[in-house]
Amino acid sequence: MEGREHNSRNDLSGTVHGPAVQARTIHGGIHFRTEAASEHQPPWQLPPTVRITDRAAELRALERYRAHSGEGGHPTLAAVSGLGGVGKTAVALAWLKTLRPHFPGGQLYADLGTHSPGGPVDPGEVVGYFLRALGVPAPQVPAAFAERAALYRSLAAERRLVVLLDDAASAAQVRPLLPGGRSVTAVTSRRRMPGLTVDGCYAVHLEPLGLEAAVELLEATLADGRVAAEPEQARALVELCTGLPLAVRVAGAILAARPRRGITTMVHALTEEHDRLEALAIEGDHNVRAALDVSYQGLPPEAARLYRLLGLHPGSEFSGSVAEAVLGEEAAAPLDLLYDANLLTDVADEHTGEERYRFHDLVRLHALAKAEDVESADERAAALRRIADHYLATATRAEGIIDPQHLTMNRDYGAGPVVTAEFGDDEVSALNWLERELPNLMAVIRGARPAGFATVGWQLADAMWPLFLRRKFYEQWRTAHAEGRAAAQELGDTEAECRMLTSGGIGELGMESPERALEMFEQAARAFRAHGNELGYARTLNYQGLAHQRLGRLDRAAEFFADAASELSRCGDHRASGLARFNLADIALTRGLPREAISGAEAAHTTLTEAGDTYNAARAATLLGRAHLAVGLLDQAEEQLSLALTTLRATASDYETARALGSLAALAQQRGQADLARTHCREALDLYDAAGRSRSADAEAARTLLGQLEGRAGE
Questions:
Q1: Pairwise CA distance, residues 521 & 544, whole Å
Q2: 62-78: burial string, b at 16+ Cβ within 10 Å, e else
Q3: pTM exceeding 0.85
Q4: Percent of the chain with pLDDT over 90
Q5: Which of 539, 545, 508, 512 is nearest to 524 (CA)?
Q6: Dist. CA 623–CA 625, nearest whole Å
């Protein structure tokens, strides 16, 4: 009321910087705008851009996301992550620079310094820097962080800004720096930051460049015609750089400084793995090792140790169980940290969904170098042995599931702990694990003797027998058993050497090398006889019969099979005796004696079934079906072949499944079921091709039958 006394006070005290307003009663909002801030020119702080290649898809995705966010009047937040040197900042700049006409409020840039020697920059310091860039005089920048952030948001709300937050450490560091309004913010980090997803962030992860894009980048860096003059060497060079843009640029810069030097010289310099990181350095400037050192130094101790020990892994990719093997049960969290830091790439198996990981090649070399620098020789040897034992133990578990009768040789492990991977309890899962890990298993076999644990060399080859037998990886079969035999010889283990000879010889038969196989079987027979091993010798009789059969010496083969059946039964190995009888029945069918083949196949099927050997029992059923087909007993043939097909499909045995299908095709043809016969033939040929046996006699028979059927269909 007018004239009424009030007890309120309106005193101005303390030190005041800048204009001051005293007011008694205020109605409506209060708006402050300093003259300096309102007249200040917009900041254009983004660093210069550099040439990028093969990032069009990522740039389109970022712009699509911005356009979608802008439609609703929302701010745009995007994060670009990836390995150090992969080009995160370059991609972010290439995108943000195109936005300048649409965002007249300015462009703010801050290096958040996650990997700088002094550590991450304090967000309050960055906000203060942004406020000054937006025209707030230094004396008017609030001292308290909360007030700074509030003023920053107020100013940003009035502008359309572009903000680049480079080299961020975490979502918590980034959040106070988000401008709001209709601004665009890009964050780059070597770490994935899922926490920002809560804030509506769009994440883009960069992988190294493909081959052609990397060559294009090298050509742009050199710009002197050498790439065009030496195209093959240029491709070899960028392959050695494994597509990492920083590595390609460094290699190109080194060559650019030496215009008379050919690309070949640089290729030779990088070929030696141990020195590759040193070769990819420009003195006092860019350095691939230094870029990786920065990421490594930011790791907690356990993650850093896991990084070093995983560098010892002999293969290119691995599962989380390998991390557990080298570090122990507490490996999950450090493994996640390595993934988040982009030192590991996730390569999840598309069939099983299992999480698998891979080192970029240059990162692997860096991890290995750190292991050699930090871990003692004994620690490295122990970790490598735990890796080898992990694969040996898991392969042995798979062997026991698929072919328990084969698991007769001892397995020797190191000090442990021994970690076994989980893959299920059925044959197909076990076979799939062996196939998925085949490159790693072969790498362990090749490295076992040099690493000082030769027993792993032959024992792992032995454990892989079911994979080789069922899925016919012949080259690996030969290599594994040759290395396994060398390991057994080094150990002076005659029994192990004979196992490598006989199992390896079966592989030679599959590769159409019966002479070589026979020589290996005969060597094993002599060794068994010299050491008085009657059972081992009896088993070689069956193997020698197989070699003679492949050589076309059917009478000689039948003699060996008959002797093997008798001797193996006397030695108590009824399963192996059943296999010998199966082989005799196969000889009888080849000779045109189907009734004799039926009798022998039935006996073999019974013995193998009683022994629990479902795989070979199914093979006997296929043979029995073929014999019934030969004497015109079509219903009995269909029954046996269908039974065999069901079992063989369940074990994913492509070659034997194809043989059963080929016989079913012949059966369908005899019944006048041409469409069904063609279907069986086509599937059989696909499986022969998958098993690497597309030129076998059985495959040729299926191909001939299909040709006849299609010819008739055409008529």
A1: 6
A2: beebbeebeeeeebbbb
A3: no
A4: 60
A5: 539
A6: 5
Q: Say if residue 489 is exposed, middle or buried (CB neighbours under 10 Å; 0-12, 13-18, 19+).
A: middle
Per-residue DSSP letter, 134: T
Question: Residue 561 in 3-state DSSP?
Answer: helix
Chain centre to alpha carbon of residue 450: 25
Question: Are 208 and 239 within 8 A, CB to CB?
Answer: no
User: Taking a C-beta distance cutoff of 8 angstroms, is the pair 457, 449 a contact?
Assistant: yes
Q: Which two tokens stand for residue 402?
A: 């698929």
What's the N-to-C CA distance of the chain in angstroms?
112
CA 209, chain centre distance (Å): 17
What is the number of residues in the chain? 715
Cα 549 from Cα 129, distance rounded (Å): 85
Q: Distance between alpha carbon 157 and the CA centroid of its chain, in Å?
A: 46
With contact defined as beta carbons under 8 Å apart, do 149 and 39 qualify?
no
The whole-angstrom separation of Cα 270 and Cα 248 is 12
Q: Which residues pair with 564 in a beta bridge?
A: none
For 372-426, how does the pLDDT look when each residue is reduced to its tens digit (9 = 90+)?
999 999 999 999 999 999 999 999 999 999 999 899 999 999 998 899 999 999 9
- Per residue in 522-536, pLDDT (tens digit) is 999 999 999 999 999
Token duo for residue 55: 């990032």
pLDDT digits over 194-228, tens only?
888 877 899 999 988 899 999 998 998 888 889 99
Chain centroid to Cα 112, Å, comes to: 32
Q: How far is CA 693 from CA 154, 156, 309, 314, in A?
A: 73, 69, 40, 30
Q: What are the distances in angstroms from CA 446 to CA 284, 365, 442? A: 40, 19, 6
The bridge status of strand 184-189 relative to strand 76-82 is: parallel
Kindly state the DSSP code that residue 120 receives in the 8-state scheme: S
As a whole number of angstroms, the distance between CA 464 and CA 632 comes to: 40
> What was the pLDDT predicted at 318?
94
| Lookup result for tokens 């293969």 | 315
- The two most distant CA atoms of the chain are separated, in Å, by 132
- Long-range (24+ apart) CB contacts under 8 A made by 407-416 are 409/459, 409/462, 409/495, 409/496, 409/499, 410/459, 411/459, 411/463, 412/455, 412/456, 412/459, 413/389, 414/382, 414/385, 414/386, 414/388, 414/389, 414/453, 415/382, 415/385, 416/386, 416/389
pLDDT, position 274: 60
